[in-house]
Design the sequence.
């Protein structure tokens, strides 16, 4: 594999990613010795929990999802273009798929004049972005229920918008001749990917045992090895985090995972993205509780009526990072399900970026419109099931 890219400002660093990233992980371990012991234990445990309890299951979910996608070989984009009467249904289905790929596909077809504005509404309302992988991995029943809710709400929203405004609402004919901006590509070392998978294999075993409430550190301590599971999770989690950051250090934006890449490459890339934000979220929670002595669960329970609104407003932010934070807070028990529902419906994930680049007005209107069903459904659930 060719590791050199002319776009790179640091070709040497890009070539030797495995050596540099492994060195950074060990440097982090060394620096940890100079941190206050209690703070260090919190950091170590948070990163370890993020990897063992979240990353391993996200990776397993992605492997299954990408394998099905590759071997079924069904061109959903072509199906939308050739069946205009069913475009709303298919657009909502694409949006409901875990990840942002399906929604991005719909957005790009809209700005090229292939689909209606109702399809844009359907897919943006239905999509939960990369946060869906995290929710499915940690709470499968809730995760699949959210996908179903997103599909139904997206379908209804798309049909209503087309009936009210018509399929060509806000279409800018000038945008039809504009090509979508291409992101810089960042080439990863295949050796680093193999090392990543080598860590994942024992990691998923640890994750399964942890899910069944086995105290692995206590088990390994019987063999005079203290904290072995936590140390492994910390090392593997730190590796994922540094791999996620490495593209930015090299001056790149990671290229979007596509079906043309190998299942391994897609799994490593997308899992690292989710892991990076989950680690940040875990650290924020734990360090805030420690430093401020703040009970976040009690705080949100005191402002319960405003929590779904806050989650919906966070959904306005483009990208999947903020939405992963909300989902992590829900999984950790800090946010109610109504907040997760509101955020899942209102957020557009990475699908909002192509729309913002080509037609900002359309992106703004579609985002605002998606808040209407998000508020209705989230507050409906709050009123009938959580109060």
Sequence:
């Amino acid at each position: 594999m060719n590791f050199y890219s002319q776009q790179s400002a640091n070709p040497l660093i890009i070539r030797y990613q495995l050596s540099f990233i492994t060195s950074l992980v060990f440097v982090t371990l060394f620096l940890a010795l100079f941190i206050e012991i209690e703070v260090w234990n919190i950091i170590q445990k948070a990163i370890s929990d993020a990897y063992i309890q979240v990353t391993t299951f996200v990776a397993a979910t992605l492997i299954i999802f990408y394998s099905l996608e590759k071997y079924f070989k069904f061109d959903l984009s072509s199906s939308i273009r050739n069946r205009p009467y069913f475009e709303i249904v298919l657009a909502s289905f694409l949006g409901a798929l875990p990840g942002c790929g399906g929604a991005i596909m719909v957005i790009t077809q809209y700005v090229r004049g292939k689909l209606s504005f109702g399809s844009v509404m359907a897919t943006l309302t239905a999509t939960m972005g990369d946060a869906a992988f995290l929710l499915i991995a940690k709470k499968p029943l809730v995760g699949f229920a959210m996908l179903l809710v997103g599909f139904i709400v997206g379908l209804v929203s798309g049909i209503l918008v087309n009936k009210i405004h018509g399929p060509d609402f806000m279409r800018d004919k000038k945008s039809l001749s504009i090509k979508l901006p291409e992101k810089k590509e960042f080439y990863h070392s295949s050796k680093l990917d193999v090392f990543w998978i080598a860590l994942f294999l024992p990691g998923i075993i640890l994750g399964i045992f942890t899910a069944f409430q086995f105290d692995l550190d206590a088990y390994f301590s019987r063999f005079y090895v203290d904290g072995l599971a936590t140390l492994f999770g910390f090392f593997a989690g730190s590796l994922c985090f540094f791999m996620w950051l490495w593209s930015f250090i090299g001056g790149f934006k990671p290229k979007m995972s596509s079906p043309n890449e190998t299942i391994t490459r897609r799994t490593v890339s997308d899992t690292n993205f989710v892991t990076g934000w989950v680690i940040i979220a875990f650290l924020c929670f734990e360090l805030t509780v420690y430093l401020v002595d703040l009970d976040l669960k009690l705080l949100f329970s005191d402002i319960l009526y405003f929590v779904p609104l806050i989650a919906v407003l966070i959904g306005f932010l483009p990208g999947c990072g903020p939405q992963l934070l909300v989902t992590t807070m829900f999984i950790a028990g800090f946010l109610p399900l109504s907040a997760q529902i509101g955020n899942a419906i209102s957020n557009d994930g990475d699908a909002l970026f192509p729309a913002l680049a080509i037609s900002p007005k359309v992106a703004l209107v579609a985002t605002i419109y998606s808040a209407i069903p998000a508020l209705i459904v989230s507050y409906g659930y709050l009123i009938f099931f959580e109060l």
Summary: Residues 1-11, 175-184 have pLDDT under 50 and may be disordered. Residues 74 and 223 are 51 Å apart (CA to CA). The two ends are 57 Å apart (CA to CA). Residues 37-72 form the longest helix (36 residues).
